[in-house]
Amino acid sequence: MSNSSASSATITAVAVFENGRFCEGQGRALIFDAQIYLGDDRPPLLAALKYFNAENHVFDPVGFYIVIARIAKMEPSAKIGLEDPNREAYFDLVGDVVRLIPIAKDGVSPLYTPYIEVCGTVENIDELAGTFSIDAHQYISSLRSNSPTQTSGTSRPNQVFKSIMPVECAFPNTARWTKSGKKLMPQQHRYVSVTGFITGRNTKSVAGSEQTERFTVEVDSIVFLGRPVVMKSSGNSASHGTYYYYITLTLL
């Protein structure tokens, strides 16, 4: 039995969109044939990508786009609106578009919010506000000057490594994120992978200037990964929690 809350797959690519067509019974949803380059010596990937055209954008017959999409391998059961069902065999992927940015002749508009992927443990749950926080610790070379240094005669560092991407995540007010009238919320100290859009920042006043404390993220998808891994130190009988984090930011 599949469990869509325990795994995910998202692609970011430059793609050629063509053959746009309406999805029967799905309002403004369109399906496109999207070709994605794999290299000079390989045929491109062909994906059937569904896009909800909320702003009634007029598409050219063929267009170049930067696309972020949730994807899966094509299956015979996919409903992709083909007049000729024999063409289905040519497709590699099927998916839902998260973000679509046209590549125009005069360049790409910078007016798109960034898309971020963060893995880490859930903290600071606020049921009333519908938010939770993740402090994603990750090595960044430019911050290595504040990395731990060893104290003479000890095996422990005398300084805490500070390289953190702090985010406050909120679910949109839609039926997708509500169950039995209550907004979905992960459990405290559980490990999750979140993708979404950075919508702003929380700041504090320091010496008369506003400094960012935490970035606000509108959740687009979340994967529940259970409890963080706990490993035993080889030289000590006590267990230490080992937490794994990663952050990926797509500046689109």
Write the topology of this structure.
Blueprint (H helix, E strand, L loop, with lengths): L9 E13 L6 E8 L8 E8 L9 E12 L19 E10 L12 E12 L4 E7 L26 E7 L7 E2 L2 E2 L7 E16 L2 E16 L5 E3 L6 E3 L4 E5 L2
Parallel strand pairs: 3-5, 8-12
Antiparallel strand pairs: 1-2, 1-4, 2-3, 4-5, 6-7, 6-11, 6-15, 7-8, 9-10, 11-12, 13-14
What does this structure look like?
The chain is mainly β and 252 residues long. The protein is built from no helices and 15 strands. The chain has strands at 10-22, 29-36, 45-52, 62-73, 93-102, 115-126, 131-137, 164-170, 178-179, 182-183, 191-206, 209-224, 230-232, 239-241, 246-250. A hairpin with a 2-residue loop joins strand 9 (178-179) and strand 10. The two termini are 35 Å apart.
